[in-house]
From TrEMBL:
Keyword Transmembrane helix attributed: no
One GO term describing the cellular component: outer membrane-bounded periplasmic space
Location(s), subcellular: Cell envelope
GO biological process: transmembrane transport
Family statement drawn from the similarity comment of this UniProt entry: Belongs to the bacterial solute-binding protein 7 family.
PANTHER family registered for this protein in UniProt: PTHR33376, SIALIC ACID-BINDING PERIPLASMIC PROTEIN SIAP
InterPro entries per UniProt: DctP_fam, TRAP_DctP, TRAP_DctP_sf
Keyword Signal: yes
Signal peptide start-end: 1-31
Organism name: Modicisalibacter ilicicola DSM 19980
Principal location listed in the UniProt entry: other
Protein name according to UniProt: Tripartite ATP-independent transporter solute receptor, DctP family
Sections of the chain in a coiled coil: 264-291
């Protein structure tokens, strides 16, 4: 009798506890919505600094209603795969270069033209103004939400074979490029063999000699430890590589205006923190890469490089017109 009473009490207690746990987990699901944020670079990179700022800002503004989980190092795939993920809602926020973006939003190809921007100041000014706003809006026409322009940096060439000071030195090198036809075209004009590849595969491809070189900003060369597989760095600064904080329409279109405002502010904070980190690394990174054993070609004469890639402009304007290009050239920046 006593035993049966005890057993019943225990069973009820266990059932009660289970119900309480269930109720609590339902409550916490309602209270905090997880936001998945992906990017291709390491957790010590400028993108990760931007991811931290996004997380801190969104969680603070929403008072914990949204919790951000960062997935660095291409854990959710390369940039093209993650952009597709945004369109179907398997990832919520992505920090990406414009590398594969033109495949989705062709208007952004203009930004990938080599030697379009003189310096950081000019590039940031264009992207923060009306042109940048218009390009972000175009993402909305292509099942993506453009939240803020952020930054990767001016791209430079590295390789394992020889010091490159002129396009002639680069001729014949097999160079990994982003999956971007404007970049591929420009490199082909320079006489190198462009090999498009998603970023998460690049380190191994360099290590195994599948390609001789790659091109990326100082920020990425540092964050990915490319000095371990590349001996030579040439500060070609051949293209400014913007990055963008993109959102999934599957998540963002369902939010209230206030909630969406938090995401926009978080993206702005992310861009600001990333740009600061890019500026810092631009100052300190080259010296660090020298210390790691890379030879560095500085003060290159850029004109033969500019000359070599000129046909890429015609190929671009033949296909996409010159309206955006002229707007950028005519801007006050
Ligand atoms: O966005 O693919 C690249 O080389 C990019 O610069 C890198 O993924 C960071």
């Amino acid at each position: 009798m006593k035993d049966r009473f005890l057993r019943r009490t225990l069973t009820m207690a266990v059932a009660g506890a289970t119900a309480a746990t269930l109720a609590m987990s339902t409550l916490s699901v309602q209270a905090a919505q997880n936001v998945t944020l992906g990017h291709t670079l390491s957790d010590s990179s400028h993108y990760s600094v931007g991811a931290d700022a996004f997380k801190e800002t969104l969680e603070r503004l929403s008072d914990g209603e949204f919790q951000v989980t960062e997935h660095p190092s291409g854990a959710l795939g390369g940039e093209r795969a993650m952009i597709e993920g945004l369109q179907i809602g398997t990832v919520d926020i992505v920090i990406t270069s414009t590398g594969p973006l033109g495949n989705f939003v062709p208007e952004t190809y203009v930004l990938d033209l080599p030697f379009l921007f003189e310096d950081y100041e000019q590039a940031r000014c264009v992207l923060d103004g009306e042109i940048g706003e218009d390009l972000l809006a175009k993402m909305g026409d292509n099942n993506l939400v453009g939240l803020a322009w952020t930054e990767n940096g001016f791209r430079h060439m590295t390789n394992s074979q020889r010091a490159v000071k002129t396009p002639d030195d680069a001729e014949g090198l097999k160079v990994r490029t982003m999956e971007n036809k404007v970049h591929m075209e420009a490199f082909e004009q320079m006489g190198v063999h462009p090999t498009p590849m998603a970023f998460p595969e690049v380190f191994t491809a360099l290590q195994q000699g599948v390609v001789d070189g790659q091109e990326n900003p100082i920020t990425v060369i540092v964050a990915t430890k490319f000095w371990e597989v590349q001996d030579h760095l040439s500060l070609t600064g051949h293209v400014y590589s913007p990055a963008v904080v993109l959102g999934s329409p599957v998540l963002l279109d369902g939010l209230s205006e206030e909630q969406r405002g938090w995401f926009e502010q978080a993206a702005d904070a992310s861009a600001e923190a990333t740009r600061e980190e890019v500026s810092r690394l631009e100052k300190e990174g080259v010296e660090m890469l020298r210390e790691k054993g890379m030879t560095v070609q500085t003060d290159l004469d850029k004109s033969p490089f500019q000359e070599a890639v000129k046909p890429a402009y015609e190929i671009y304007t033949d296909q996409y017109g010159d309206e955006m290009l002229e707007r950028i050239r005519a801007s006050d920046c």
